[in-house]
Amino acid sequence: MKKISTILLLGLFILTLSFAAAAQDLSGEEVLTNIENARQAETASMQMTMELYNAAGDMRSRQLNSRHKEGEVEKSLIEFTSPADVAGTAFLSLEDNSSSEEDMYLFLPVLGSVRKISGSQKNGNFVGSDLSYIDLTVFSGANYKDNYQADVLDSSSEEYLLKLNPTDPDINYKYGKMWVKTDIWSPKKVEFYDQSEELLKTVQLEDFKKIDNNWIAQKITVKNEQKGTKTVMKMTEIKFNINLDDQLFTTRYLER
Amino acid sequence: MKKYLSLIILITLVTLCAFSTAAAELPFSLSGDFKTKYIYDLENENNLDQTELNLEIEKDFSYTGGFYLNLGLESYSEYLMNNKNRETELSIKEGYFDYYTENIDWRAGKQIFNWGSSYNIKPSNYFNPIDIGAINPLENREGINALQAKYYLNNVQHFTAVVGLREDINDFQQALKFTKRRWHGFDFSLSLFRGNELEKYNQNEYPKVTKAGFDITGDIGQKNIGIFSEVVYNDFKSPIFNDGLETVVGFDYKFENNLYLLGQYYYQKRLFENIDDSQIISLHAEKPFWQFHSWEANLLYDLNSELIVLRPKIIYSLTEAMEIEAGAVLKANDDQRSQLARANEELIYLGINSYF
């Protein structure tokens, strides 16, 4: 009997060691690569509701369509469909991967024409929400390595905890902490710290669903811990790898 | 007078209710806004009001065309010989048909063009006169009946040809513009216009003029500071006007705290011998506060007359698509010789805007 329990304990010990060894096998860089590899869609089309909450808990809601296409020129189009005061407003972003040059256009229905907007528009928040434009890349899962270098802080068979150190000078966070689910290689929580190393934002990703071989969080909550404001994004329709005509991503389309 | 206002409000409410229940079944999209303002005219010490209902009816036939109609019903008070009168106007602000072919997008009807990349004062906005009755005339332009054709060479280059008819002077206006986008981070256009000035000069005359324009906008530096410029050369038919340049240079920038700043300098060579060149500096700032609300401020400074016009404004969101707007137009060193003085009455106002 003693023999059996010794063997079992030994087995358990070896198993624990092997799990720990497997978890430690990956560097922060490799975890980021796994996240990027887990999302390999050439195109994405999403309909979402964005709920904006102020510190008092009052809410305003926005509905928008977002379309994205990879390629030599990375193309994104975001169109607001409601409420009435912002409906019809559209952003077009065209980023040349070879030169990293980005052109952004804004269509305002009240003007009826397209206006090229300066890159500094990305400094502020995305359409009044708690997200910066660079935060949006967290959810696309495609550009981590362009913006961050990662160190592993902790790991288990189920998740990695990474420390994200910004490499992009436009990012104003001192650092971030990201919890990554290893079963689907997706972040489930991210914390961003300001220059004083105080917690600034918490991003919670929930309701994961596999759509066209891509795992995606259908609910994302971004909380500004210092202001007490919150933005909840709920995906209502998601399609990957569908045929998106290049003509959609033109100023000609916007002006129609 | 109160009767008219009540009638308009009643019609508006009934219309809104009817539309909100029926909109889902209509074969076209319906949207619009309702705005009402109480205005106190500081120069003449008068109480005024403005109520406006805009209905936008739109149908998009996907890749082949569509139509758009913007109907405006406006009721406002004004003083004539110290008597307060009420005017009510129904107008088509814009109304046009679109027809798209493989390379050409056609648009026929009453339309607003918004040419030019600068802020409010746009030398290359050749077609649409400012709406002098609006609280901010520079932000409100009147439509013109025109035929527009955009010929696309590709996704980044196109020609635009416009032939328009100015109803107020019954004269044709023509322009041709070439636009290139995404050129080393810049968009630019070259344009040629033949027609009439938008403003009246000698003896209520809109001088005949030929204009050649250049317009550019893009970013500079690692901070992505936006810059823009318009340069237009005016060649007047009548010798009583001086030919010469009209130009704008400016920048804009958005900070991480969401403060947006814009500054521009405008220059126009003097039109007549006995006046000075026109030089105006514009500054604009806007910033959201408490998540859903925003404030903005415009400052115009006429370098010659030293007139300063300040336009502060607060927009406070009451609920989804409904807001309170409060603002003022304030002047210092008022000088009626300045174009700015004539287009900016000193006033304060409070209003409600609703969008549907």
Give a verbal description of the structure.
The complex is a heterodimer of chains A (256) and B (356). Chain A has a single domain (27-255), classed as Lipoprotein localisation LolA/LolB/LppX (outer membrane lipoprotein receptor (LolB), chain A, Clam), CATH 2.50.20. Chain A is 19% helix and 46% strand. Chain A contains 5 helices and 13 strands. The N and C termini of chain A lie far apart (81 Å). The model of chain A is unreliable at 12-23 (pLDDT under 50). By secondary structure, chain B is mainly beta. Chain B has helices at 2-22, 339-343; strands at residues 29-41, 46-60, 65-80, 83-100, 104-111, 144-152, 157-166, 171-183, 186-196, 208-220, 225-236, 244-254, 260-268, 278-289, 293-302, 308-319, 322-332, 347-355. The interface between A and B is large, with 39 and 50 residues.
Please specify the SSE layout and strand pairing.
The complex is a heterodimer of chains A (256) and B (356).
Chain A: H1 2-24, H2 28-38, E1 43-53, E2 59-69, E3 73-82, E4 90-96, E5 102-108, E6 113-117, H3 135-140, H4 144-147, E7 148-155, E8 159-166, E9 175-181, E10 186-193, E11 199-211, E12 214-224, E13 229-240, H5 251-255
Antiparallel strand pairs in A: 1-2, 1-13, 2-3, 3-4, 4-5, 5-6, 7-8, 8-9, 9-10, 10-11, 11-12, 12-13
Chain B: H1 2-22, E1 29-41, E2 46-60, E3 65-80, E4 83-100, E5 104-111, E6 144-152, E7 157-166, E8 171-183, E9 186-196, E10 208-220, E11 225-236, E12 244-254, E13 260-268, E14 278-289, E15 293-302, E16 308-319, E17 322-332, H2 339-343, E18 347-355
Antiparallel strand pairs in B: 1-2, 1-18, 2-3, 3-4, 4-5, 5-6, 6-7, 7-8, 8-9, 9-10, 10-11, 11-12, 12-13, 13-14, 14-15, 15-16, 16-17, 17-18
